[in-house]
Amino acid sequence: MSLFKDIRQYVGVPRLLSLRLSPDGSRLISVVQSLNPDGKSYGTSIWEIPTEPGGEPHRLTRSAKGETGATFTKDGDVLFFSRRPDPTVKEQDDEVAALWLLPRRGGEARRVAERPGGVTGVETGGGTVVFMADVLPGDAATEADRRKARKEAGISAILHEGSPIRYWDHDLGPGQPRLFAASLPGLDEPRDLTPGAGGALEVGSYTVSPDGATVVATWRVPLPGGEQHSELVAIDVATGERRTIASSPGHDFGGPLAISPDGRYVAFSRESHGDHEKAAAYCLCVADLATGENTEHMNGHVPVEAVWAPDSRSVYVIADLEGRRPIFQVPLAGEPARLTRDDHAYLWTCPSPDGRHLYALRSSIAGAAAPVRITLDGGETTELPSPAPAMEVPGTLTEITAVADDGVEIRSWLVLPAGASEAAPAPLLVWVHGGPNSSWNDWSWRWNPWIMAEHGYAVLLPDPALSTGYGQEMLQRGWGDWGPRTHADVMAITDACVARPDIDAGRTGMMGGSFGGYMANWIAGHTDRFRAIVTHASLWYLDQFAGTTDFPPFWMRQFGPPGSERLERLSPHRSLDRISTPMLVIHGDRDYRVPIGEALRLWWDLDRSSVEAKFLYFPDENHWILKPGNVVVWYETVLAFLAQHVLGEEWERPESLG
Questions:
Q1: How far is CA 459 from CA 4, 88, 376, 462, 598, in A?
Q2: CA–CA separation, 475 vs 178, rounded Å?
Q3: CB atoms near residue 394 (< 10 Å)
Q4: CB neighbours of 484 closer than 8 A, spacing ≥ 6?
Q5: Which pLDDT belongs to residue 91?
Q6: What angle, 0 to 180 degrees and rounded to 10, lies between the N-to-C axes of helices 482-498 and 515-524?
Q7: What are the tens digits of pLDDT across the range 57-79?
């Protein structure tokens, strides 16, 4: 049976999560996620991947707790994080991760750094290793005892004195992030580089200069009225002295961060704060570390990743572009050049030290991430052996476009099941992506259209207003006009799709998560053309949502303060009385970006209005459904709901629900 047919097989497929190249260019490593023996959870391990087409990947680590965050030291040893037990330590906390080192010449890994609150996010430069740790305020010498006392007393309370207090799927506090530096080879007595940081390093990023002397980091600055912005700072590793590199009112400076090999420049992203009328704007910046003077590049693009060429004369940048995510070469002086011109999405770019190749993970709507080598002289791309199996998708991928009512072209990927034809047209599912500043351009394990194709559906993946990869104007079109503008775009591309002879216009459904869930709710209240709608992690009552999400200021900039006209006008709940389409509501209780109150209120509103609906509730999941068993339930319930309403079959409760 096809693994796209049997969801239990599908959730067991290994996935590549990262790619790192050793400083001498001789070794590639990747963190690989795979199903644990219990079948109830995922584990991670580190694998080595050949840098040439021949050879076989081989596993470097194996433990029940797994390994993450793998990177190389300057000498080629591998650093990683793990909660695995240390045989040399009698008492240890297996709930927090320590930093481990795996020697390049083989042998057992050894624990090299730890903190009472755990460690994460390692970066290296020269002989310096910098990592992040969660630290309780107060005397560092007593932190371990104070953490133990909280645990033994059953205390989980957190006292907050400012915002934010949560982020996506986890609480912030009671500890605060700090940066620690230590020297190779022993990493003895890591030094706290940021003892007075407070919450400045929360939800930020950082990098280390090639000589290990400087750390460049984002630095969150609280502002009056619950607002904030992020600066870019340089921290001297020897002294801890901090200076500001980039700061401007109404802007955030942050990742991706990369310091040039010669140590002169730092590349970073800049995002302007949108206001009531003007959309947020993005670009790549390059600053001189000595003077702070900076230049702008790729205006209108959202930099996803940036890494320097070995000669320090250009930056390799990954950004969305028209349903793809190519690699660009951005020179310090001159115009960006697109290096990859295929239909793929790239991540984890690793330039070889001789300047001849780029290694990367390449994926697409039709293929999961796999390692490749790109020859810069000629652009040839070579597939490398992968620890994860290649998968043959059950259908074909094509591209369609339509012109919206304002004359703008809207493009979309269309997944067609095998056998779809004029004689046997396929039922259609329209999926609206989240974000809203996002794009359908990459493989998704959580929203995989090929599972639907295996069950006979065509899947339309549109990039409407607010999508990235189409310039600033595409963001501006939907800014402050989420529902109406995006709805018009989605309907225009849907009309073009159902006009095809291989699509059954009479059997259609619509699905969306996060912003796509907002659009699912909006569409439910503005058309009855779909037989069923699936709304996942969705926004329903905008005024309620804007004050309970993890970062309310972002929404206030666009929609106005609580009770504003725009919040009221764009709220899907206002059209409850027009909803007649059967709806499946899905939400996780630990979702802090779109809190569970949205689903609870939506479900109650549908129930009291006698709309045919079901509520798939996950008490232990967040914005994403991540546990293997719950993923099975998610897909099987969605398929059963669609079979009932789109295909006209009898409702059959999935066996996985018990």
A1: 14, 54, 35, 10, 27
A2: 35
A3: 20
A4: none
A5: 67
A6: 80
A7: 999 999 999 999 999 999 999 99
CA 455 – CA 398 distance, rounded (Å) = 18
**Cα-based distances in Å from 318 to 287, 402, 510, 542:** 19, 27, 30, 33
Q: What is the mean pLDDT of the chain?
A: 96
Sort strands 110-113 and 119-125 into parallel, antiparallel or unpaired: unpaired
Cα separation of 384 and 577, whole Å?
55
- Only one residue has tokens 């300057």, namely 74
Alpha-carbon span 10 to 319, nearest angstrom: 29
pLDDT value, residue 106: 83
Alpha carbon of residue 225 to chain centroid: 29
Nearest CA-CA partner of 104 in 63, 48, 62: 48
Taking alpha carbons only, the member of 633, 603, 401 closest to residue 517 is: 603
Q: Are 343 and 386 a contacting pair, CB within 8 Å? A: no
Q: Which CATH class is domain 395-657?
A: alpha beta
Residue 188 token pair: 């003895």
Residue found by looking up tokens 């809207």 in the block = 410
CB 179 within 8 A of CB 208: no
Distance CA 229, CA 93 (A): 35
**Burial class for 154, CB neighbours closer than 10 Å (0-12, 13-18, 19+):** exposed
CB 216, CB 207: distance < 8 Å: yes
Q: What is the DSSP string of 376-435?
A: TTT--EEE---SS-----SEEEEEEEEE-TTS-EEEEEEEEETT-SSSSPEEEEEEE-SS
588: which strand partners? Answer: 618
**Environment class of 497 (CB within 10 Å of its CB; exposed 0-12, middle 13-18, buried 19+):** buried
- What are the DSSP E strand ranges found in 103-241? 110-113, 119-125, 128-135, 166-167, 170-171, 176-183, 191-192, 206-208, 214-222, 228-236
Strands (E), 594-639: 613-618
Amino acid identity at 46: I
Selection from 143, 123, 252 nearest residue 193 by Cα? 123
The predicted-structure confidence for 88-107, as pLDDT tens digits, reads as follows 776 667 789 999 999 998 88
Q: In this predicted structure, what is the pLDDT of residue 338?
A: 96
Q: Which residues are CB-neighbours of 46 under 8 A, at least 6 positions away?
A: 29, 30, 31, 32, 59, 60, 61, 67, 70, 78, 80, 102
Pick out the chain residues at pLDDT < 70: 1, 90-92
| Amino acid identity for residue 328 in this structure | F
C-alpha to C-alpha distance for 264 and 287, rounded to whole angstroms: 9
3-state secondary structure at position 656:
helix
Tell me the one-letter amino acid at 546.
A
Q: How many CA atoms lie within 13 A of 239 on its CB side?
A: 5
Whole-angstrom Cα distance, residue 71 to residue 122? 8
Per-residue model confidence (pLDDT) at position 88: 77
Look up residue 405 and give its two tokens.
Answer: 């009512």
pLDDT at 92: 66
CA dist 343 and 365 (Å) reads: 9
Q: List, as one string, the DSSP characters of 27-46.
A: -EEEEEEEE-TTSSSEEEEE
pTM assigned to the model: 0.96
Cα 489 to the center of its chain, rounded Å: 25
- φ/ψ of residue 622, rounded to 5: -115, -140
Tokens standing for residue 645: 């309403």
CA distances from 158 to 144, 164, 174 (A): 17, 13, 5
Provide the residue type at 45 as one letter.
S
Domain ranges of the chain: 395-657
- Residue 9, token pair as written in the block: 């097989």
Q: First-to-last CA distance in the chain?
A: 23
